[in-house]
Structures are given as structure tokens and as C-alpha cells.
Amino acid sequence: MLLHRLYDDGLAQASYLLGCEKSRDVIVIDPNRDSDQYTRLAASLGLRIVHVTETHVHADFVSGALELAGKAGAQLHLSGVKTEHGYAYDRALGARPLADGDVLEVGMIRLEAAHTPGHTPEHMSFIVTDTAVSDMPVGAFTGDFLFVGDVGRPDLLERAAGVRGTSRDAARQLFNSLRAFAKRPDYLQIWPGHGAGSACGKSLTSTPQSTLGYEKLSNWALQVDDESEFVRRVLEDQTEPPAYFAEMKKVNRTGPRRLESVRAPASASAADIASALRSGAVLIDARPAVVYAREHVRGSVNVPMGKSFTTWAGSVVPYDVPLYLLSDVARPRLAAAALHHLRLIGLDEVRGCTTWDELADWADAEFPLVGTTQMSVDQLRLGAGAARILDVRNAVEWREGHIPGATHISLAELRQRVGELDPNQPLIVHCQSGGRSAVAASVLEAAGFGSVANLSGGYVGWRKAGLAVETGS
């Protein structure tokens, strides 16, 4: 048996290439949109991709299953489970529908589809048997059903896809799926679809794989025997899903646009950027927050390139306008990396790229060069005056403790809820340590807020100063 795990740090997402050493045939499970990585790996090992599948309709990235199957000439398999909300996938995708108990054969490798609803209604896990060695299963691809240390959140159908009143029913489904799955052999290896940092669960670990027996000993979800208690615990303290999850659900249901059809961005001059901004485009400034704060184009949105770039971009960048990307000439690979991660979540309309050096002669009165005001904890302690303190951390962080009198809107929801704030009232924005609030400050400035300051050091700095906090909602 051949098994390769491909992991994307920005998405905290794992996909797998599983094959038979004898036949050299392979199946790819849960591919993301970068389909070339799978064809390159298969070619380098002398393997043929004959099947492509995925565990469920993903909410956190554009699926690469349809495009990869087309490129490789492979058979696409998708869950065919029908729920009260209809079929999970558009039937026009031409995939073989999978039902519970269906079997896929890849040379001497056998995969049994096991319906494991809860995270999503259609979710399938795949039980793997290497028949060349044994007739007993060796492991399971559990997607977003069972993680190392946690389980997939059951509230996304309601909170991300907008199907109201489904969270508790999904939690009960998840409980029953776990009880049934726990009856399998303890030695069964677990190969999950995500690791730490994913918003598809709340306490995932960085460990790449586990065994069912170990998860029974260490995973809280397999230790709760009461359904009502499980439902309560699995739904409590779930963070706000990033805004782009709803878009991903729609895209992946109907079949994503082929990545090869997305046009490459052109090199953009200062004049091009200014003209685009006047026409409603968004300029994504991917430079570090501290650099952006010193000077930037007013109206741009700062999403610093880093591990959280994908999540933050998906939360604050709109899908329905042309986009332009600005990077730092001192980091030449930054633009390519940023463009790659934007495309992984379907932000395809990047029309042009530029660098800060290209804007050296920028002189546009409508969109001048400005800086972001930085406020220290000591300055805030002396009084905010007429300013409103805006906390953009998630709801769990807020309940655990927040600055008295602050308003809470998480970064994940800020662009959708910006209308709740008065653009004429000064704002002091903070998060835990300053990363998310820097992004939030740029979003507010771009939305027309005239006086926005970023609290240096954030809530951590406030606590270190020994200042009062409030807890609860």
C-alpha cells in the first residue's frame, strides 16, 4: 500500500493519495484546488490516478475533485446521500454517487464508504483494507467527521450555509455516527482531513494521525455517553465561521470553475490601481501590518501574508468586485504565495499585481497615502474620550474576558456587520495581540470610517497592565 499525505498549512487541510504498489493505481481523497500537486506526485512515482473522491461538501476551500478527475481521466465519486435539503452535489457533475457500504477498489486496496453524518448530512468516511496483506481494515479517512483530539463542528450548515435550525439535529447525528464508528477495531488508524488551525473544529491538534483506540482514551467526544450532554458540549464555544464559508458551500455544490480558466493578473501601474479603486475595485495590501501601518493607500485592505492569510482574506475580501494585489518588493515570492492562497478559496478576480516601489510616485487626492494610528494601552487607560472600543476577537475569547464597555464584532463578521457602527464616531480597535485588529482597522478605514486607531498589544497588553476586565456575554 502506498500512502502520501499532502498538507496545506494555510488551510490546515490534509488530502491523501492512496495506491496499490502492484497495479500502480491510486485514488486521491479530498483534493484541494491545486490539482497539479497530485498529478505531479503521481507522475514522479509512476502512478496512475484512476479514482478521485471527497468526504463531504467542503466549506473552507474550493474542491479540486472535479478538475483533478478531468485532468487525470479518473472516475469521480461523491456522496449520493439525499437529505431533507436535497442532494449535496449538483447531479450534473457526472460523479458516481456513493451510498453507505459502497466499495471502491484500487488494485489490491479496498475502500468502503461509511456514511458518517453530523459535520454535514452527506459526510462519508472511507474504511481502507490492504487485501494484499490482510482482510482486516487498516485505517480510515475520516475527513471532518473525526479529528485527532476533536470532531467536526455540526453547526456549519446553519451558521455558514444559512439552513436555520439544523445545528442540534446535526449534533445528534454526529453523536450517533461516533457511537457506531467506535465499535470498529481499536487498531484502526485515523487519517483526518484537518489539523490545528482549522475552523472546522474547535480543539484540533497538530498530530497528523492517530488510532481509534487512542482517540477513545483521549478525545473528549468519544468519552461522552449521554446524547444531551454531547450536544451541549459540541455546540458550546464554537467560533464564528469565516465569512467565505458560505461562498465555498455554494461553489462546491455546483462544481467549481476550472483553475486553468482563471486568467493571470497583469502588472499594474499606480495609474491602473487609482483608476480601479475609483471604479470600486479592492486593493489587497499583503505587506506586514507594521509596514502597512506606517504608510498605505487609503481604501486598501491589509491582509498580511502569513499562516492566517487565507482565513483573514476569506473574511474581509469581497467576491463580487475586481481585486488588485500589492506586495513588498523585498519579498518577491509573497505575491505568488498570496495569489495561490486567494485562488484556493475562489477569490479569482485578481486583475493586477503591483509592489510598493511601483507606487513611489503615488499622488491621488481621492485615495491618498496615509498611516494607521497606533494607541498604547497607557493612552487608552487614561480615557477613550468619545471613542468606541471595538473588540474583533472571536466570541469565546470575548466571553473569557474583555475590556469594560467594549463592543464586540468578530473579524469573521466585521464586513457584514459594519453597518452597525457609526462611521463618524472614533474607533479604537483591538484583538488578542494586534494581528486581527490591524486587518479590521484597514477594513473600517476602507468602509469610510474617519477616525480608527489600532490598540498596540491588544487585550494581552491590557491584561499585562493589570487593568480591569469583564467576563461573559
Describe it for me?
With about 475 residues, this protein is an alpha/beta fold. The termini are far apart. Helix 10 runs parallel beside helix 14 (about 410-415). The model has no long low-confidence stretch (mean pLDDT about 95). It has 3 domains: about 1-255, Ribonuclease Z/Hydroxyacylglutathione hydrolase-like (Metallo-beta-lactamase, Chain A, 4-Layer Sandwich); about 260-370, Rhodanese-like domain (Oxidized Rhodanese, domain 1); about 375-465, 3-Layer(aba) Sandwich (Oxidized Rhodanese, domain 1). It is globular. It is about 30% helix and about 20% strand. It contains 16 helices and 26 strands. Strand 2 (about 15-20) and strand 3 form a beta hairpin. The chain has a 6-stranded mixed sheet with strand order 1-2-3-4-5-8, with helices on one face.
Return the structural class.
Answer: alpha/beta
Largest sheet: 6 strands, mixed
Enumerate how many helices there are, as a single number: 16
Kindly state the number of beta strands: 26
Kindly give the count of domains: 3
Distance between the termini: 51 Å
Portion in helices = 25-40%
* Widest β-sheet, arrangement of strands: 1-2-3-4-5-8
- Superfamily at the CATH H level of the largest domain? Ribonuclease Z/Hydroxyacylglutathione hydrolase-like
Q: What does the overall shape look like?
A: globular
